[in-house]
Amino acid sequence: MLKDIIIALQAYGKAHRFIKTHRLWRVIIVPGLLYMLLFATSMYFFWSTATDAVAYLNRTVGIAGWLERMNSRWLSFAISFAELVLTLLMLLFYFSLFKYIWLIIGSPLFAYLSEKTEALIEGKSYPFSITQLLKDVWRAIQLALRNSLWQTVYTLAIMFLSLVPLIGWAAPVLALFIECYYYGFSMLDYSCERHRLSPSASIRYIGTHKGLAIGNGVVFYLMHLIPVVGWMLAPAYAVVAATISLYDAHKER
Length: 253
Prior knowledge:
Elements lengths: L1 H21 L6 H33 L1 H8 L2 H50 L7 H32 L9 H24 L4 H9 L2 H14 L5 H23 L2
Helix pairs in contact: 1-8, 1-9, 2-4, 2-9, 4-5, 4-6, 4-9, 5-6, 6-7, 6-8, 6-9, 8-9
């Protein structure tokens, strides 16, 4: 898996050079601006909602009064940290929902960009077919809904885990890796579909190459640490990098 992760990480550098060389900015900038605006707006409201929810839970359970009676700095620190962990998990959960909505909205562009990338790599052209594009979009929507269901199940389980002292502190990291895997999965599936893998075959294939999906998702999320520019470029770079990483992984086998 480590080898696949390295391939996926290196693919982002290749994706940047690839986009510059083939001047693909025109299919990146406009949807990137839309994504940036939606992301910034959503995160503002998501953060407000998450903090309000944790505060409500605190008041309902009566944790503040209990801590005051216990008068323990260590307990206060542990509870405060647990509240922060739960807030981060809720934020990741909200972002997952936003991500899947964006994957559905952007699926026509992502399918086209993945196909364009592979065509340029191999020096051949794929004839445009509106029927095929619609099939790609429908498949992407189905897999997005399937992945969102499974990720929700895992995230809810991790939220319960976060309530366990000490062990629960690792919950955000576990949730983030699951988030990375499922996002990378969606990016890789565009190439799998083009190679005529059925949804079930694609699930099995990516399941045996989890590193490609995790590595792709990790860099996608790291790009969000760069305000504005990172937000704008992250989705398109993820598509191109996923296509390149799958192509490179095939060459090495």
